Amino acid sequence: MRRLIVLPTSRAGWGLLIAFVALVMAGTWPVIGLVNRATLVLGLPLMVVWSYLVIFACVVVMLIGNRIVERDDHE
Amino acid sequence: MNSPWPLLITLVYVAIAMLIGLRARAGRSMNSLEEWGVAGRSMGPVTLYLLIAAGSVSAYTFMGAPGWAYSKGIAVFYVAIYLAYLALVAWYFGPKVWQFGEQFGHVTQASAISDRYQSPALGALAALVMAIGSIAYAVLQTIGSAYILFVMSGGLIPIWLGVVLVLACIAVYLYASGQRAIGRTNAFQGVLMLIVAWAVGLWAVHSATGGLSFAGVFERVQAEHSEFLTLPGAGGDMSFSFWTTSIIVSMFSFMPPVWTQWMSASSARTIRRSATWLPTYYVVILPMVVVGFIGIFTLPELSRADTVVLEYAMQHLPVVLVGLLGAGTLAASMSSSEPFIHSVSLSFSKDVLQPVLKLSDAVTGKLARLLILPIMFLVIAPLAIAEPGSLVMILLVGLGFASQVLPAFIGMFFWPRASRLGVMAGIVVGFLITTALTTLWPHPMGIHAGFWGLMLNLPIFIAISLMTPATNAEVVERFFRIAAPRGLTRIGQ
Which among B64, B185, B199, B246 is placed 20 to 30 Å from B435, CA to CA? Predict the structure, then answer.
């Protein structure tokens, strides 16, 4: 039992895990350092635009996740 | 401010919230833990969306976040990002927690911990220490509520009276309708906050720039104070490491009220659907933060940064909008304090008093309802009236501790070998480190104290778990049939 852990069991599951990790990386260092500039995009600071891109990307990834979970029928 | 309208509007909001809270009961008996604690596991996706959203958007959004924008700048957006990540956490863990609750009868986080590790002592320990952060959080929100009543009444309602009034209103509907009241009132408060935030934000932008675009505000900030648009911010104290570790620590702080909210859903699928759209709610933060940026130019001498929106509104906005701002801020404070008060009462009854006094479920259900009264009036009210200077410190330690319970969840969702002693050792060491690095040597190297705690907590948890007996295989199997319905993976062989 000591070597048993929970990991994704399908390619779609691994894809979701990678997407979740990518989202967390997108909102933290070092990625956040790349957008740390005092420039405006569409009238908003780049950091604000990036923050909301990450936030809405979370919605998109979860929508895809819902399709996978419901298709595979595992609650 | 001499107009009676702001206070009237704020009081009308309180009356509506009370009415909604009282009606939420709809003739049901509230003496069982299932009903009063988790609303009979009945909440649909829209109610759950607004329940979680309004619960996570506290007075911080209307006061603290604009204050951060005013004093530090863009660093405030770490909050919006971690709130979105909490939705990812809810999406993955929420449905599994709901299934644990539904199949094993859990109504609190601590009862799930107690069951997984077959240790009422560990459950009670988790309940007690989680209560520290929860009570500190509820006290801070109550202070915010009383302050709003003080400002809206032009000083007629002193802080002590505001504290008593707000707690009395919450006590009435929380006692009567429990989690159903929290669900319904949070739904109302969530919609109100969204409308008020955007109305106040757009009006403030119009009064400051003559237009409705935020661009005018940010172009001026860029030209005159560009340090507000990047990290480490105008205060120079929000480094990349603090930004990153604050987000990670906040993400892994599984606060008990959130757990209770997940268990109140009507199905596992409901949680997933609500969590999916949850990040969209956090557009509520943007207009309030913009008012904070406007304050940099219009209120340069402000002594308390977190009053920037209220001060700006009272000087530049119509009285009706000031009243709505009061109602919106009060809604934010109340919607965040209610779940914490409810959760402390529920968990203290179920996970501490029931096993110690060997109470039946029926008596425990009645006790949970009654316990909100001493918690509110003997603990929260005196603390809120006294406003101890160390309260923020208690809150930081409490929230830092919340993340130290992570090993208990790793053992529940990912690693069957996790043992009771391993979890206890990890929690105790992580708690001591977090306490020391919050109070004695705050956040060394710009890294969040809770993150330092986790870095020692996790290796100790793994090492002690491997050296001590695992939980009964039957119990572990019962949990992992839900946590890993498609089986476990063997690593290293």
Answer: B64
The answer regarding whether domain B5-382 maps to CATH 1.20.1730.10 reads yes
The token pair at B385 is 């009236």
Q: How many domains does chain A contain in total?
A: 1
- Strands A40-41 and B489-490, by their bridges, are unpaired
Q: Which residues of A touch B234 (CB under 8 A)?
A: none
Please state the ipTM of this predicted complex: 0.95
Encode B335-396 in three state secondary structure: HHHHHHHHHHHHHHHHHHHHHHHCCCHHHHHHHHHHHHHHHHHHHHHHHHHHCCCCHHHHHH
Question: pLDDT (tens digit, 9 = 90+) per residue, B328-357?
Answer: 999 888 888 999 999 999 999 999 999 999
Domain ranges of chain B: 5-382
Test B218 with A44 for CB contact under 8 angstroms: yes
Residue A36 domain-assigned (yes or no) = yes
A43: domain range? 15-72
Distance CA B101, CA B260 (A): 9
Q: For residue A75, give how far its alpha carbon lies from the nearest alpha carbon of chain B (Å).
A: 7
Residue A23 is assigned to a structural domain of this protein: yes
Q: How far, CA to CA in Å, does A73 sit from each of A8, A62, B259, B275, B482?
A: 15, 16, 24, 18, 13
Residue A1 lies in a domain: no
